[in-house]
Design goal:
The protein contains 20 helices and 3 strands. The protein is mainly alpha-helical.
Length: about 500
């Protein structure tokens, strides 16, 4: 019990991720000269470039705004107006009544789930606050972060995506054959997507191609299973591939923006998620239609029963490894991989245990996401990484790939009511996951606040004080006759005989 208390104390202690820090700016020790336009422009450029990395990685708009304001305030620009939209960041700094405001804008042209870069920027923000880095040094550090190559080879990411698909295939109820087919199919999807991305094909059509490739091998193998002497469920293979394709979408960020008060950015992100999901549906539907034309019919899909208690350990480990592989595919650091594994383990365990109570997938997903968000916030404190890494990786195995495929298949077979219900269920699961993560992160941020923050509502900067050494007591020794004679001689000005 004592060891458990110590571990919980370390998790909920004073160390906090930068995203959890208060929005009140600290008082800088050496603020910049507000009359120097070049220095002010350098600080504003640093702030918006940091916000660019955060926004491109899927961070919520309000959290990105808080980080941009904090960096500017650290250097003395405490009065700033920051506007973060779907693909742009604008910051305007007020420099007093007699000076014109300074404004900088930056457009985000890319979306990149590079967790190593995100963690490095998080450490840079921490260094700006604690080490009082100069704007020039901070900008040079940021340049090195954004231009550094990925920490892993691209083939490592490909095998990670494939391992994630195999783990999800086991999580949804498949066996060894489903895992192997999902692994190979996802490897083909990733390599084709890389070629199409280099060719500049819009991401929507890349999703269409990915959905087509995800369904075709499963349908082909199902129609030749008698000749091959195997038994396979094609729906599980397709669901694993669809989940991998859904994992790169910013579902969490879109719902967080809607909840935390950024409706415009939330609408843009959510529309992007719908469009990319529509591309996956179009690709899978094309494959199914071609199979129907040539006479290859798939079996009817029934609702998945609650998992047996004996299957829970295997599925929990599958969910944990799916989160681990997703973090690895997004180039996460080693300590972030451990946190992602634990987040996926907790999420899969809670999801399966709640689902055994016959509560339904939406409620089970919301409960599991809340636990993932809460645990992710605590582990992010301990590992000093952004909570987004643990949250996104933890809920990825729970994305509604099977419900999405079930609804699409039903609608293609003229079962409109069942198909529409399944698609709505997939939509509800996605919203429940994102909302649960937001609630869990809020709980982690408010669980234990630093004492100085609870008392003053702001963080105080360190000050230098002279340390006063205690005075040593004066020891007087008794003087002898010779010493007394010398003292009298010195007082009278007559030299002594010595």
């Amino acid at each position: 019990m004592q060891d458990l208390t110590t571990s919980l104390g370390r998790l909920t202690g004073e160390r906090r991720a930068t995203i959890d820090t208060p929005t009140a700016p600290p008082s800088p020790l050496r603020p910049i000269d507000l009359s120097d336009d070049a220095v002010v422009a350098e600080v504003l450029d640093l702030a918006v470039r940091v916000g660019e990395v955060l926004l491109a990685s899927g961070t919520a708009a309000m959290d990105t705004t808080a980080q941009v304001q904090y960096i500017a305030a650290t250097y003395g620009l405490s009065r700033c107006d920051v506007d973060v939209t779907y693909n742009s960041i604008t910051i305007s700094a007020h420099r007093g009544p007699t000076r014109p405001p300074s404004t900088t804008m930056r457009i985000v042209h890319y979306r990149s789930m590079d967790f190593t870069r995100l963690a490095a920027v998080d450490r840079l923000i921490r260094g700006v606050r604690t080490k009082m880095m100069t704007p020039t040094l901070a900008r040079e550090t940021l340049n090195k972060i954004t231009t550094a190559p990925h920490p892993y080879n691209r083939w490592v990411a490909t095998f990670a995506w494939s391992g994630m698909a195999a783990s999800i295939g086991v999580l949804v109820g498949g066996g060894a054959l489903v895992a192997v087919v999902s692994f190979l199919t996802t490897m083909v999807i990733d390599r084709i997507g890389r070629v199409l991305n280099r060719a500049g094909l819009p991401f929507f059509f890349q999703q269409v191609v990915g959905g087509f490739v995800a369904a075709t091998p499963a349908i082909t193998l199902y129609n030749f299973q008698d000749q091959l002497g195997v038994t396979i469920s094609p729906s599980l293979v397709i669901a694993a591939g669809v989940t991998v394709l859904l994992s790169g979408l910013s579902l969490v960020g879109s719902v967080q923006d809607a909840i935390t008060g950024a409706p415009i950015t939330a609408s843009a992100r959510f529309f992007e998620v719908l469009m990319m999901t529509g591309g996956i549906i179009a690709g899978v539907a094309t494959s199914l239609k071609i199979a129907a034309i040539i006479g290859s019919d798939l079996p009817l899909i029934s609702n998945t029963p609650p998992p047996d208690i004996t299957e829970v350990p295997t599925k929990v480990l599958a969910g944990a490894f799916a989160s681990l592989f997703y973090a690895l595919a997004c180039y996460a650091e080693k300590r972030a991989l451990t946190a992602a594994f634990l987040g996926g383990f907790a999420g899969a365990l809670v999801y399966l245990m709640v689902q055994t109570l016959a509560t339904g997938p939406i409620i089970a997903s919301a409960f599991a996401a809340t636990v993932v968000g809460f645990a992710g916030g605590l582990m992010a404190r301990r590992a000093l990484i952004p909570p987004l890494i643990v949250a996104v990786a933890g809920i990825t195995p729970l994305l509604p790939g099977l419900s999405l495929y079930r609804g699409l298949y039903a609608m293609l077979n003229d079962q409109l009511l069942l198909g529409f219900s399944s698609l709505l269920a997939a939509f509800g699961i996605g919203c429940g996951l994102a909302a649960g993560v937001t609630l869990g992160e809020w709980g982690a941020r408010t669980l234990r606040r630093p004492r100085i923050l609870a008392r003053t509502e702001e963080l105080l900067r360190p000050t230098l004080r002279r340390r006063e050494e205690p005075r040593r007591p004066t020891v007087r020794r008794r003087r002898g006759p010779v010493e007394l004679k010398k003292k009298k001689a010195q007082a009278s000005g007559v030299p002594s005989a010595d």
